[in-house]
Write a structure and sequence with these properties.
Blueprint (H helix, E strand, L loop, with lengths): L8 E4 L6 H11 L24 H10 L13 H8 L3 H12 L8 E3 L7 H8 L3 E6 L2 H12 L11 H18 L5 E6 H6 L1 H16 L6 H6 L22 H15 L16 H19 L2
Parallel strand pairs: 1-2, 1-3, 3-4
Length: about 300
């Protein structure tokens, strides 16, 4: 058994990959998410809530220097974030934030943005327990398009190929930065939707083995999953998706294999991203930001 105060549970995944439902399952298992008034509240995109600790996002934005115009698509972002762990002020704020979560038992953080900040946090939280969600990237891309596009836009535009680049970048970061961790579970979103009981038991067994809990509220964990909320199911196998590159298809196949074999070695050179892709992702974000600002004028 390991000390839950020193081994936080970290729910990782690309946005719209099932991190919210997995976070609720972890909460119902018995892990603390933070006071309800400090959690991102439910909305149309996440009717049961996001389970994201808002002070964590505030610190991430500060670490990322977002107020200066920096973004996590900057080519040097990973290097800059890693260096922040050596900054006494940043380190102190991170440790103090973790201390807020210590309630004499297991606790967790879930925020897809953490995927961009792992070079910093791995130096702070040490030997964490990672639960990583895997979902058909096409469904992620379509869901993310609906999430980011202004609801009243009259322009018919598709960001699917761009969102697949986004997925590939973030999934690569997750796989790279969890390659050396001891405690990791890969969790298939479709598997959760198709077989709630088996996946709740699988998650509980994993957490129990790490944190020494013997009795788990399996039915409560099962009830966290509402299959009717699986709203973006394109029904297309990813290997048949025209917008996807060969590298993206291979990366998704590898991520699916990690569900059964979490310690299969990851070789990033097998899944290269195209030259200049970060520029495209930065442009997409800037365009959407400008569009929203025009909307509110």
């Amino acid at each position: 058994m390991i000390n839950p105060e020193n081994h936080p549970i970290i729910v990782l995944g690309v946005e719209r990959s099932g991190t919210s439902v997995v976070a609720e399952m972890v909460h119902r298992w018995g892990a603390y998410a933070g006071p309800s008034e400090k959690l991102h509240q439910a909305d149309a995109h996440a009717p049961k809530g996001y389970w994201e600790f808002l002070p964590l996002w505030d610190l991430l934005a500060e670490l990322g220097d977002f107020d200066t115009g920096a973004t996590w698509w900057d080519s040097d972002f990973q290097h800059r974030i890693a260096k922040k762990a050596a900054d006494p002020t940043s380190k102190k704020k991170a440790i103090e934030l973790m201390a807020e979560m210590h309630k004499e038992g297991p606790w967790f953080w879930k925020d897809p943005a953490l995927s961009h900040f792992l070079p910093f946090w791995k130096q702070i939280w040490g030997d964490a327990i990672y639960i990583i969600t895997v979902r058909n990237p096409l469904d992620i891309a379509v869901s993310w398009q609906k999430f980011i596009m202004p609801s009243n836009t009259k322009v018919r535009i598709s960001f699917v190929a761009m969102n697949l680049l986004r997925w590939q970048h973030i999934m690569t970061l997750i796989l790279q930065h969890t390659e050396d961790v001891q405690h990791r579970l890969f969790f298939g979103y479709e598997d959760i939707m198709h077989n709630r009981c088996a996946q709740a038991e699988r998650l509980a067994c994993f957490l129990n083995s790490k944190l020494g809990k013997r009795v788990s509220p399996i039915q409560a964990m099962v009830d966290a999953v509402e299959p009717q909320l699986w709203r973006n199911n394109c029904g297309i196998p990813f290997e048949q998706v025209a917008e996807a590159t060969a590298e993206q298809k291979a990366l998704y196949a590898f991520a699916r294999r990690k569900i059964d074999n979490p310690f299969e070695p990851f070789d990033v050179t097998k899944y290269p991203l195209p030259p200049g892709y970060l520029e495209f992702l930065n442009i997409q974000e800037a365009l959407l930001k400008a569009y929203r600002e025009l909307e509110h004028q």
